Amino acid sequence: MNDPGDVPRQPRLTRAEAKARTREQLLDAATRVFARKGYAGASVEEIAESAGYSIGALYSNFASKEQLFLELMSARRERRVNEVASILHAGDPVDALVALLDRSAERDPDLVALRAEFWLYAVRNPEAMDALTAQLRRQVDALIGIISAATERWGTPPDVPAAEVATLVLAMFQGLVRQRRIDPDRVSGELFGQGVRWLFGGLRAASGQQASPGPE
Predict the structure, then answer these.
(1) Helix/strand/coil (H, E, C) string of 36-83?
(2) Which residues of the chain have pLDDT under 50?
(3) Which of 40, 156, 172, 184 falls between 20 and 30 A from 200, CA-CA?
């Protein structure tokens, strides 16, 4: 009979699982350090120490600080795209978009700084611009479905390209996320939702249809 005070042993990780966990912990540490100090100010020594690993462990997973930074953005992008897809396929279009603003501003504040840092890095290192372009296009693609649903629901002209509307919505979304980080009292989720309704109302008005703010 087992002692009630015994703690169940955790199953031992395989070598592949242990390596994957090490990489994830290093990426999490890199998120914090890059967001706090920027690409130039961050050091691999500090990232490794923050993750609780040696420099050797870091270099056994990433060839350089640059590779770590680029893989960090790629890994976080994939995670973000999956989260966006799950939110956008549920409920009212505006409610879904507002939920994204709330999550970006509150749940993962480091993401705002990382996006700005990656933009600066890509501008200064043209070879990284392709990665940034791919990231932007995937974000727009993730929005196209919900924009198309909103277009159909609110009677927006069918000849308005959903991809272009999605680009406008994304630009407004990203701008408000940054502004909300600076002044949350002025930039609420309701402001973004109202902005989306104004956008669709303007599209209806421009086509000669009766302008409408969209469903409440």
Answers:
(1) HHHHHHCCHHHHHHHHCCCHHHHHHHCCCHHHHHHHHHHHHHHHHHHH
(2) 210-216
(3) 184
